Amino acid sequence: MLEKNTESIQNSPTVKDADSSLTVSAIPKSVFPSRIVLTTYPKQIGIDPIPIHWGNSDHLKRGPVIVSRSPSTIRRRNAIGAHGGTYSIYYALAVASKELNIDHRPDFTNTEPAVSIGPYPQWGSSRKIVAMDPWGHMAPWIFKDIMSREDVDVRPTIAITKAHMKLAELEDSVKKGRIVPDGKICLNGLGELSVTKFAVEPVWYLPGVAERFNIDEGTLRRSLFEHTGGSYPELITRGDMKVFLPPIGGLTVYCFGNPDKMSDESCNGSDVFGSDICTCRPYLIFGIEEAVKEAQNGGSGVVIYFRKEGRALGEVTKVRRVSYSANLPAHGA
Question: Do the domain assignments include residue 1?
Answer without folding.
Answer: no
